[in-house]
Amino acid sequence: MMFLNEASLLNNIRTRYYKNKIYTYVANILIAVNPYSEIPALYSPEMIRNYKGKSLGQLPPHVFAIADKAYRDMQVLKQSQSIIVSGESGAGKTESTKHLLKFLCHNWGEESGILEQKILDANPVLEAFGNAKTTRNNNSSRFGKFIEVHFDKDFKVLYDIPQ
Ligand SMILES: Nc1ncnc2c1ncn2[C@@H]1O[C@H](COP(=O)(O)OP(=O)(O)OP(=O)(O)O)[C@@H](O)[C@H]1O
């Protein structure tokens, strides 16, 4: 971008959004715009495989790239990593968190995948207890959500911060 200010950033995000490119990087922060419709190719099994082991920026901006970087940083630095998912109600935090979990489970989980499937399957149950319809979101996590997933010894904390 020629000028880095709020207006040009928003314009850039809008232009990308109209091309179904809902993800944009600002340095190593990922901005996601809620498309309010399914973009199937964005989360296909092929995409999940493509983003495994790729450096940030090697492929187009994606929530999978953030998950992969966190996992690889954990391995290299031997320290737990955190992904903070933040935004107003209805912004798409819960959906983003589900995509993060799915990516991590499919690419970096145990081989049998049984435990990972249980983690993914637990989500609808938790939502049944913790979610409610609000004016801003039909499936709002009003009671807050905190997901902690451990792979091996010291993997990983995901936060979905209620707004
Ligand atoms: N990546 C996405 N693709 C398609 N639809 C999405 C996506 N992200 C969000 N949505 C749609 O937007 C709705 C609201 O998203 P979500 O529940 O994730 O918001 P939230 O930020 O967690 O809200 P709250 O803080 O109220 O819990 C979802 O039910 C879904 O219909």
UniProtKB/TrEMBL annotation:
GO molecular function: actin filament binding; ATP binding; microfilament motor activity
Keyword ATP-binding annotated: yes
Domain Myosin motor, chain residue ranges per copy: 1-163
Protein keywords: Actin-binding, ATP-binding, Motor protein, Myosin, Nucleotide-binding
Binding locations of ATP: G87, E88, S89, G90, A91, G92, K93, T94
Record keyword Protein transport present: no
InterPro entries: Kinesin_motor_dom_sf, Myosin_head_motor_dom-like, P-loop_NTPase
Gene3D superfamilies: Kinesin motor domain
One GO term describing the cellular component: plasma membrane
Family from the record: Belongs to the TRAFAC class myosin-kinesin ATPase superfamily. Myosin family.
Protein name according to UniProt: Myosin motor domain-containing protein
Record organism: Acanthoscelides obtectus (Bean weevil)
